[in-house]
Amino acid sequence: MGVYILKRLFLIVPTLFFILVINFVVIQIAPGGPVEQAIQQIEMSRGLGISGGETATTSSQYQGARGLSEDMIKQIEAQYGFDKSAVERFWIMLKGYLSFDFGTSFFKDKPVTTLLWERLPVSVSLGLWSTLLIYLISIPLGIKKAREHGLIFDKVSSLLLAVGYAIPVFALAIILIVFFAGGSYWQWFPLQGLVSENFAQLSLFEKVKDYFWHMTLPLFTMVIGGFAGLTYLTKYSFMEELNKQYVLAARAKGLTENQVLYGHVFRNAMLIVIASLPEALIGIFFVGNLFVEVIFNLDGLGLLGFEAITQRDYPVIFGTLFIFTLIGLLLRLISDVIYQLIDPRINFDSRGAK
C-alpha cells in the first residue's frame, strides 16, 4: 500500500499542472477580463457609459474603452499584469503556487490565501455536518430498504426520496426562509450568517446553541437534497450482496439475519459506498454549498468562487480551483486507503494500480 500511496502522491503534481494549464487557457480566452472590468468601473465613475459622446481609442483592443487614453489603458494592464505575455503570466503564477502563494485579489485587495482562510470555516462547517448527517441517514435507510424491498416501507420511503430529490436546492432554501426565517410567517431561525453578532460574549453552551441555531436551515436544505442518491446506492449494493451464494451458505448454517447482514454482507456492500465518498464530498463541499451560501448569505468558498467568476478576479479563480482540485485528489487517495482497510483482500500494490 505504501508504494501505491507514493505513486499517487507523485501523480498529483503533473495532474495539478495540466489542470492549471487548462484552466488558465480557458479563462484567458473568456471575454470580459479584469482589464475590461476596470475600464467599465472607471467609465461608470466618470459618467461616460457606452453611449458617451467621445470616440473610442482606435488602438485599444477593449470594447467600450471610450474616453480613456492609451496611457491609462496601459497603466490598467500593468496593474493587473496584462502588460506581460500569457506565457510570462502563467510562469509567474506557477512559481508562486509552488510556495502556495496564490497572489492578491484584483478587486478585494487581499491575498488569495487570506480570503480562502477567512471563508474556509463556513464551507467546512456546512460540508462536514451535512456529510455526516447524510451518511447517518442514508446508510441505515438504504439497508432497511434493501431488507424490505417491495414492501410498504420501501414504496413510501421511495416516494419521499423522489420528492426530496426533485426539489431544487435554491427553491427549498427560499421556502424555508419564507416560512421559518421571518419571510412571511414565523421567525424561528436567523436569516443569514453563521453566528450572531454577540457571539464572542456568549458562554460556551450558548455559543454551541447559537451556532447550530444558525446552521439548522442551511443544513436541512443540503441534507434533504443530498441523501437520496446515497440511499439508493446503499440499497442496491446490499441487495446485490444479499443474492450471492455466500449469503445463502451463511443462512444455511443457521446464522441470524443480523449476523448475515452485519457479519458478512456489510463489509462487501459498503465498498461501493466508500468508493463514491470523494465524489460525494466534492459535490457537497463545492457544488451544493454554492446555492446555500448565496441564499443564506454565508461567506464560504462557494460564494467566493462565484463572486470571483462574475468579477473576473483571476487570482481568486485560479486559487479556488487549485484548492478544490488538490482536495479532490487527496480525497480520492484517502478513499482508496479506506477501501483497503475495509477489505484487506484488495491490494493495489500487487495489481500495479496507478
Work out the helicity level.
over 70%
Overall pLDDT, averaged? 77
Note the beta-strand portion.
under 5%
Structural class of the secondary structure composition? Answer: mainly alpha
Core attributes:
354 residues, mainly alpha, 14 helices, 0% strand, globular
Description:
There is one protein chain. The chain is about 70% helix and about 0% strand. It is mainly α and about 350 residues long. It starts with a helix and ends with a helix. Residues about 50-60 have low confidence and may be disordered.
Structure in a nutshell:
Helices cover 72% and strands 0% of the residues.
Task: Explain the layout of strands and helices.
Blueprint (H helix, E strand, L loop, with lengths): L1 H28 L4 H13 L23 H10 L6 H13 L13 H36 L4 H15 L2 H12 L23 H39 L2 H8 L4 H19 L1 H19 L5 H11 L2 H29 L5 H4 L3
Helix pairs in contact: 1-13, 5-8, 5-11, 5-13, 6-8, 7-8, 7-11, 8-10, 8-11, 9-10, 10-13, 11-12, 11-13, 12-13
